[in-house]
Amino acid sequence: MKAHPTAIVHPRAHVAGSVTIGPYSLIGENVELGEGTEVLSHTVIDGHTRIGKNNRIFPWASIGLAPQDLKYGGEPTRLEIGDDNTLREFLTIHRGTGESGVTRIGDHNLLMAYVHIAHDCVIGNHVIMGNAASLAGHVEVQDFAIVEPFCGIHQYCRVGQYAFLGAYSVVNKDILPYSKVSAPRPVDLYGANTIGLERRGISREEISELQAALKLLSRSKLNTSQALETIAAKGFQSPHVQALVDFIRTSERGVAK
Predict the structure, then answer these.
(1) Sheet (strand 78-81) strand order
(2) One of 48, 119, 138, 240 is an active-site residue; which one?
(3) Which end of the chain is more exposed for a tag (fewer CB within 10 A), N or C?
(4) Helix (H, G, I), strand (E, B), or coil: what is residue 2?
(5) 86-117 b/e (C-beta count within 10 Å ≥ 16 → b)
(6) Which residue among the candidates 137, 160, 166, 196 is catalytic per the annotation?
């Protein structure tokens, strides 16, 4: 480990040999830092927090501290962060709440300045969150989703895979996978996130089927149940359409249409 003389690293912290820790950073007793991770200056990492390999954590980040939850009673909850993530300035990520509570963040994510991730959230892989985007407790953001700056997402909502959520959106329902949404109030669904899906190598044929399915959900006069029946009758071949249908059927808060 290479730590600046002003950094404070608890002697019982598990820090890999190739980790670097910058000036005035604080690493707590129950923290684990994997190989190649770089912690820049003035960062606090505490609690039962495990951070994997090759992450880069920028100044003034606050990671693994107690949740902002009045029900929290000091239980040894956890935060787990994977590999190859970029965590920018003034970001806050809280560990879980309640017994066995855990906040999880996957791999290859870019979380920009002032992002807030509350207790018990689950972030997948290859997610981008813009400046000051905020997740309340128990929010799930699935793989390859993009959450633009200043979005606010209500507790227990989900943002589906490959979705694009426009800046300043206020979200209190699940955001459909593969969709492009702007949600000031009320929520507006603009169809498939075509540019993002093309960048991820999804074929034009599959995007066309997704676009047709989303149109049935958002632009027809059918209710959600009727739209799902029509989608099934169309016989779409794309597994992504099935993933879209499964997402809707498992939604507990309803979906934004």
Answers:
(1) 14-15, 31-33, 48-51, 78-81, 102-105, 122-123, 140-141, 158-159
(2) 119
(3) N
(4) strand
(5) ebbbbbbbbbbbeeebbbbbbbbbebbbbbbb
(6) 137
Q: Which CATH architecture has domain 2-196?
A: 3 Solenoid (2.160)
pLDDT in tens, 148-166: 999 999 999 999 999 999 9
Q: Which of 204, 209, 210 is nearest to 161 (CA)?
A: 210
Yes or no: say if 26 and 6 are a contact pair by the CB < 8 Å rule: no
Contact assessment for residue 68 and residue 94, using Cβ atoms and an 8 Å cutoff: yes
Question: For residue 159, how far is the Cα from the chain centroid?
Answer: 8
pLDDT higher than threshold 80 for residue 184: no
Which of the following is catalytic: 83, 120, 143, 174?
120
Q: Which two tokens stand for residue 137?
A: 């407790």
Residue matched to tokens 């693994």: 64
pTM of the model: 0.91
Residue range(s) of every CATH 2.160.10.10 domain in the chain? 2-196
Catalytic residue at 98?
no
Look up 174 and say whether it is catalytic.
no
The CATH fold assigned to 201-249 is Udp N-acetylglucosamine O-acyltransferase; Domain 2 (1.20.1180)
Cα distance between residue 12 and residue 9, in whole Å: 8
Active-site annotation holds for 119: yes
Identify the residue with better confidence: 77 or 185: 77
At CB < 8 A and 24+ separation, what contacts does 27-34 make? 28/64, 30/76, 31/64, 34/83
At 10-30, the pLDDT tens digits run: 999 999 999 999 999 999 999
